[in-house]
Specification:
By secondary structure, chain A is an alpha+beta fold. Chain A is about 35% helix and about 25% strand. Chain B folds into three domains: about 60 residues, SH3 type barrels; about 60 residues, Nucleic acid-binding proteins (OB fold (Dihydrolipoamide Acetyltransferase, E2P)), CATH 2.40.50.140; about 60 residues, Beta Barrel (OB fold (Dihydrolipoamide Acetyltransferase, E2P)). Classes of the chains: A alpha+beta (about 300), B mainly beta (about 190).
Amino acid sequence: MTSDSLSKMKSALVMRSKLIHAVRSFFIDRGFVEVETPVRIPVPALELHIDAEPSGNCYLRTSPELHMKRLLSAGYERIFQIGSCFRRGERGRLHNPEFTMLEWYRLNADYDDILLDTKALVSFLAEKILNGTSLVYNGNKIELMPIWDCISVEEAFLLYAGWNPVMHFDTDRFNIDLIEKVEPKLSHDHPVVLKDYPAEVAALARRKTVRPEVAERWELYIGGMELVNAFSELTDPIEQRKRFEECSEERRKAGRETYQLDEEFLRSLEHGIPAAGGAALGIDRLVMLMAGAEEIDKVRLFCQ
Amino acid sequence: MYAVGDLRKGLKIEIEGVPYLVTEFSFLKPGKGQAVYTCRLKNLLTGSTMTKSYRSNESFGEPNIEEKKLRYSYKEGEDFVFVDENYEQVSISAEVLGNSKYFLSEDMPVEVLFYNGQPIEVTLPFFIEKKIIHTEPGARGNTATNVFKPAKIEGDFEIHVPLFINQGDIVRIDTRTGEYVDRVSK
């Protein structure tokens, strides 16, 4: 990176620093405890489409999720963390193999409570960083408050892709249509919440009691960019083990590296966690939105 | 072999025996979903382009492609003869050269792409100078620069030039488009 391109990034980086400071004060003022869990871990969280970067006989974390949930089971009621995560091979306009994630978790809460947290956080940050309630991204003025569209994955697919992924799940078709047919149709004028995913694509989320084929997961899009993923956390150890094993089998069939199950994490679920909700937010993308940057390289130093 | 993760702008790949150049590239991935790699591909044999989306489990061949710097030497029948730095001769057909054949001049440096040893693309210097050998005189007093008339250059190729250009003038031509750029001298 040349010193010229570094100096051009300065205003975005000043904004980034203010934003991270504001995120910390938002959570600390609400009684959350900031935690630091290990970056280098013996086994990564099992996800079908996320590959971990090896580090000696360990891995770099793809998310701090499993360690943070172990803290929930030990009685920590409200926790958050800001730190680097690593995903092998993910490089594009919105991706860098190393990126900064904010995660927060609450006991006695579900994904709707987490959505309220997220609305409060976004409006707090807009006020602190942009002195307003809207931002301009890619030429679109985006009103951040008060109305967020909320549409279920089932409705969105029926509307824009013409099929029902909850009734007849097809993993390849789901992924392609999500990118090519559904995401481009989501509003760019205000935030959109896509919620209630087929359980197959929400390995760590709780199933809906009344409709077990649907899992309580949502994703927030702002300006068409996927920004936050949230769950009502799956806390049933038997169900969790089963989903991990299925995911591991899928990875094996797809010819991808397989990882051991995180037995310590499963043990903490057996010990018991009350209902909990949590979310992961991409800090780099949030800075991109606020700074009007088109690619992650403009808001994150020394991208490779 | 290339994996999908190797794709990037400028990479040359082979699909079903055809070499392609990746001219545009984007990586899209929903949070928990499978990555989709979208490429704009240029067929290096025909020049046609297409857009293709790939997922992580696909792979591509590595085309046997070589780029060489050659100089134009002379025309022999329907073919054009070039030489490399060791004066080894390479014959390239008029078909591969396309309109570029009209812009060659002796000793001109060119870049040639070879696929499996066969020349498939010749890149000339972007700008060349040529003498106008025939054009009708422009109407007297008409000095507008946005009105064009046909003109023949050395080698008998027709281009379009502004009305003020006369027979015997030297003009600059963009070899990528075959279009007039400006007048070099009267």
